[in-house]
Amino acid sequence: MKLDDFRLKLGNKEFLPIIIGGMGVNISTIELAVEAARLGGIGHISDAESPAEVDQCSGTQFVRKKRERFKSNIKKRDKSGVHFDLKELAEAQLLFVSKAMESKQGEGAIFINCMEKLTMNNPQETLKTRLTAAMDSGIDGISLSAGLHLQSLALVQHHPRFRDVKFGIIVSSVRALKLFLRRATRLKRHPDYIIVEGPLAGGHIGFDANNWKQYDLKTIVREVLYFLKEEELKIPVIAAGGIFTGTDGVEFIQLGASAIQVSTRFTVANESGLPDSVKQEYFKAEEKDIVVNTVSPTGYPMRMLIQSPGLRAKTRPNCEALGYLLDRNGDCAYLNAYYDGLDRNNGESILVKDKICLCTHMQIYQLWTCGHSVHRLKDTTCRSPDGSYQLLTAEHIFKDYQFSENHQIQLPEEVEGMAVKKMEIEKKPLAVKSD
User: Whole-prediction pTM value?
Assistant: First the structure.
């Protein structure tokens, strides 16, 4: 069977059961989301650092204006007074999402991934602003990520599109889902879909950095499906994390899921926002290069490539221009580690080893977050005599998921200087068991 044999139904619309995840900052570009929608699936954009994203794609200057506004504070440790202008934030989000929706083609949909952990020195008001602006811009759906989102629906419950926009929650356990549903039930607004993200996913993961190997996606999906059945809730479940072939996806749908969410294979698409040089690093990656660490100031473990330049950079906090992870008191784990180290080093520049300035290095593509299957990307394309790998179109990757069978991966058409060899990719287990 193929993924093309199934459809995801959300409300009164049907989609191909293939969703491209929201990879920030601007890895899941507008162009990538538009392609997914054109092909009949669902593509995500990410609102991680949306002012910086819209500056990049539309030539606005939101980041520069914020930095100028607070430039007198740049060398100070106290960032409690560094706030986003909510009107500017709304304008940036409106421009960003509107650009995506105006470009949309086909019968698919464009969703936006909204992280609760982007606390922005004013957690509730900035999240409300981001959600509201996305809804005002006509977004088809909102996936609530990186947090429990216990208050998120209530923030926009009076918006005229509250019951029109498709809301989803990303969870890694039944426990987290129960907490969210308890609050959603009070508003009589259950999610339209549930994304169950397993331990092999890229970027931030909802598991402990030391014991993620003890879990596997299929078990968690089964647990969520059983819970929903017991509660007599008919909410589509979408499996995510480590799904590398169309056949992997079919196995989850046969298990009871309604669709899959995939990301890692699209990092090396032409439409991905990663620079081409970084895409080559993803192709070259070996399994030993993949680490799950705790350098993120959010408190969540992250999966990334150990070669990420940001892990070795001496970076002054850039909160005046960015500052997306400042908590309600203007604090950030990296900010505190940096200035504590500076004090110990008599004011000399330091390398903070246990935390990273996530805002800065995600924006400039120096933190190479990835799914566990990144080391298999080299098996999806062909290589030139100079050692570089051929980039792929999003359409090629999408259709390979859609039509492949028996874990086969269709290689791209031959281009000059590259020898293409059709091959069948050996099935790899989704779960990584501990020794």
Answer: 0.93
